[in-house]
Amino acid sequence: MNRTSVGITLNSIKNILPHTHSGLECVLLLKGKLQVEINGDIYHMSPDDIVLINCRDIHSYSAQYDNLAIMLLIEEDFLKNECEEVLNCTFQCNSILQLDSDNFYEIKRHLTRMLLVHMKKEEGSDLEFRALLFRFLVTLMQRFKATNNSPHGKQRQNTASLSHVVDYIQRNYASTISLADTAKQMYLSPQYFSKYFKSKMGTSFLQYMNQVRLEHAVVSLLGTNQPIIKVAMDHGFANAKAFSAAFQKQYGKSPGEYRKLYARPKEKKTSSLEEITSDIQDNLLELVKYMKRHDMHHDTALYSPDAIKLDMCHAAHIQFKKPKKMIHIGRMTDILQSEIMDQLREIQRLSFDFIYFESFDLDEIKIKDDTFYSNYIYNQCIHQIEELKLIPYVQIDVSRQLERCQGNLNGYMERLTSFAGILRSNTSCQTMEPWRFEIACKDRSHLNSLADFYNSLWNLFKQEGLKVQLGILIPDWALMPGEGHEAFYETLKDLITPACFAGFHGFPHPVPEQDDSRTKQQLEDFYVCRVEAIEASFNAHKLPIPSLYMTRWNTLAGTGVAESGTFFRSALIFDTMMKLCGKVEAIGFLISTYHIQEFEGIHDFGILGLFLLKKVKRPVYFVLETFNYVNGGLIFYDNNIVVTKEGEEEFHIVIYSPYYMNPLYSVDLYLIEHEIHQITLILQGLIPGNYRIKRFIFDQGSAGIFNRWSGAGLPDLNDPDVVDYLERVIQPDFYFLEQKVDGECSLHASLTFNGLVLYVVKKQ
Predict the structure, then answer these.
(1) How far is 204 from 182, CA to CA, in rounded Å?
(2) CB 723: neighbour CB atoms within 10 A?
(3) Of the candidates 8, 24, 17, 49, which has an alpha carbon nearest to the alpha carbon of residue 275?
(4) Interaxial angle between packed helices 570-579 and 619-629, expressed in degrees from 0 to 180 and rounded to the nearest 10
(5) 694 bridge partner residues
(6) How do strand 586-592 and strand 609-611 relate by DSSP bridges?
(7) Closest Cα to residue 210, out of 176, 237, 189?
(8) Residue 70, C-beta contacts closer than 8 angstroms, at least 6 positions apart
(9) What are the beta bridge partners of residue 736?
(10) What is the mean pLDDT of residues 83-110?
(11) Cα separations (Å) of 111 from 123, 136, 280?
């Protein structure tokens, strides 16, 4: 389908002076106010109002305030080629005048769906758009077709019986067309044809032909500066007098008066289209809110049934090593914030192993004073870490310190020496597992300082008699082939001792349209491929491969609040963690969306934070709860199903459905509702007896914060009542049943978009 023949946009409309189209135009107002004038009648549109403008209706728009509207324009050539019966009808579709909400609901839903499909621009979207467009037109024909008795209405209704004659007139209206010549086409006498035409069309042949000529002439009259005589001659009228008489009869004014009243002033002629502004990305959230508010994303769900049988008697135990978990809170001193400490206590049940600190500037430290009270703040930080039983993982960025110290690291080394004294004097640091210090060089131009700083720090800790581990960060610029890649690994050969570990980052979406040029398989294997590439680089440079820590990472994530919020990612997170079992030592997670935004100055709703703020849990929290159940012996891992056995008679089963797709598409709530995969898992060979089965469902409806937040109207998160509400309602759905099992048990899971289902099956 030629998209130039059918256009749909999301616009902020200001002022558009009177004009006409030879096709249909439809406007659905999402927010704000809009005044539309149609053939002299004025309508004041409010949010959720919809107005359809028929072919060649004179219409204009004006607005004093910001608004947002979906505009659909279906050109005449498309209607002629695809569904001429629509072109020959008049429709009454104006929600300001009509109150049938059910009829309008359907037409509005088709409009919003067409816009979302248009935005995708993926393979097959043209076909999907075309299907929705025809559903839109069918709804118009069935529910909004005019049934008035006006001559114009009768013309539209009766053209079917004279379709080839009407088509001939439409195509040749500018030429000389006589009654006699037209009658010959139907093999009728002029007299009989004249009577037949009037009986079917409700008007005489001459009146109808003048009507068609006037409908086309008025477009030129308003849209050009041509003399009236030329407009008349170009549209089949013998002279200006005949044109003026017919025009006066049809529109109640002379052509000159009509042009003066409705045409755009000459000095503003070139700016008519500039008064429409559009920004799809900025207005996606408004569209999503509108669809959710009016429940336009629900439809009959499509399931893809599947059944998997698993013999529990002969299931082999699979060896696997789960990665440890690391919580990232920002600066070391941030641990003293009451909100952060409350969140850290809340996640103790998730069994985190490491606590990760960045921006290790040590500005508050007192140099050459190792008494306990002189550096109380750092002693207090160490006490909090000890209370939480977490292993500190500290990143020191050489580039950052060089920039802060204007190229001289002596002052920073003095502060590190004082900090080493604090660690030495703190007995708990000697009993805890060694601290990790990760040396980073995020600016490639500072690479020559990396080895010197690493070696100096190694000597410092050795001199202080501290048991610590030193590692390096593999920066993003060293992960890509090229001169920088080679230089980085050659620099590692200058380290006084090989790095005990290496950290790296994993972000699979460097540009907004991240997956348009990549295959689904590439996205699924992104993190595994990154690990394998790092190991290959160490081997190629004959360096020992250290333990790997993926300290910072993300799944596919949207670029705005609407995309990030609607793109529920629990299954993607779980899928990544399972694929990295045995490949990395630990995986990092951010503590809080709002805290990290404040710490880094980057507002990104799509980060992998456990909390939004305070104790408002995000989906990552529940993914880690699920991941904790993957304990004991792994007996099955395939087809997005994980089964573990704990003891003799308890099984933990996770079924998940990861979707690697452009997050922009997730604002199409209709698409998400249809991405449901139904699985039946049949457990065979169970010991007969009574079993308790618990089912936890982690999906966008229950464990997704955006769904709960938007469902409440996207209220202000600074309101303590709102925060309290979100803390209480964001929880996975839970079901419990007792079942007698005679060797076989069936579990049914309906997996929503990126959803998880956890079963705990235990014999009584």
Answers:
(1) 13
(2) 18
(3) 17
(4) 40
(5) 736, 760
(6) parallel
(7) 237
(8) 8, 9, 10, 11, 27, 28, 30, 111, 112, 115
(9) 694
(10) 84
(11) 20, 7, 15
The span from the CA of 322 to the CA of 584, in Å, is 9
665 has pLDDT over 80:
no
The residue whose two tokens read 């999301």 is 10
DSSP 180-233: HHHHHHTT--HHHHHHHHHHHHSS-HHHHHHHHHHHHHHHHHHH----HHHHHH
Q: How many CA atoms lie within 13 A of 647 on its CB side?
A: 9
Spatial contact of 140 and 93, defined as CB atoms under 8 Å apart: yes
Q: Considering the entire predicted model, what is its pTM?
A: 0.70
Neighbouring CB atoms inside 10 A of 502's CB total 20
- For 294, the 3-state DSSP assignment is coil
Q: How many CA atoms lie within 13 A of 495 on its CB side?
A: 22
Q: Which two tokens stand for residue 376?
A: 């109380």
* Residues 117, 223: Cα–Cα separation, whole Å: 32
- Give residue 280's region: left, alpha or beta (phi > 0; psi -120 to 50): alpha
562, 279 Cβ separation under 8 angstroms: no
Task: Looking at mean pLDDT, say which of 54-68, 213-227, 228-242 comes out highest.
Answer: 228-242
SS3 track for 411-451: HHHHHHHHHHHHHHHCHHHHHCCCEEEEEECCCHHHHHHHH
Q: Tokens in use for 504?
A: 């790296």
Strands (E), 671-726: 677-684, 689-698
Rounded to 5 degrees, what are φ and ψ at 375? -125, 50
On whether the CB atoms of residues 465 and 422 are closer than 8 A, the answer is: no
Q: What DSSP letter does each residue of 85-131 carry, written as one string?
A: HHHT--B--BTTT---HHHHHHHHHHHHHHHHHHHH--TTHHHHHHH
Give the containing element (helix H, strand E) for 576: helix 570-579
| Pairwise CA distance, residues 449 & 98, whole Å | 75
Length of the chain: 764
The full DSSP string for 224-280 is: ----HHHHHHHTT-SSHHHHHHHHHHHHSS-HHHHHHHHSPPGGGGGGSGGGEE--H
Question: What gap in Å lies between CA 704 and CA 732, rounded to an integer?
Answer: 9
Q: CA-CA distance, 631 to 643, in Å (whole number)?
A: 9
Residue 304 binned pLDDT confidence (cut-offs 50, 70, 90): very low
Contacts of 124 (CB under 8 A, 6+ apart): none
In whole angstroms, what is the distance from residue 139 CA to residue 137 CA?
5
Cβ contacts of 755 within 8 Å, gap of 6 or more: 568, 570, 571, 656, 657, 697, 698, 699, 700
Instruction: Look at the alpha carbons of 716, 718, 721, 724 in this order and tell me if their dihedral is positive or negative.
Output: positive
Q: How confident is the model at residue 549 (pLDDT cuts 50, 70, 90)?
A: very high
At 340 the three-state DSSP class reads helix
Average predicted confidence (pLDDT) for the chain: 84
343 Cβ neighbours under 8 A, 6+ residues apart = 591, 592, 610, 611, 614, 615
Please tell me the distance from the alpha carbon of residue 286 to that of residue 30, in angstroms, as a whole number: 8
Sign of the dihedral through C-alpha 163, 168, 170, 173:
negative
Of 302 and 603, which is predicted with more confidence? 603
The structure tokens listed for 489 are: 């690994």
* C-alpha torsion 563→566→569→570, nearest 10: 160
Determine the pLDDT at residue 266.
Answer: 46
Q: Residue 159 pLDDT > 60, yes or no?
A: no
pLDDT for residue 371:
54
- In tens, the pLDDT along 671-685 reads 666 677 888 888 988
Residue 751 near residue 676, CB atoms below 8 Å = yes
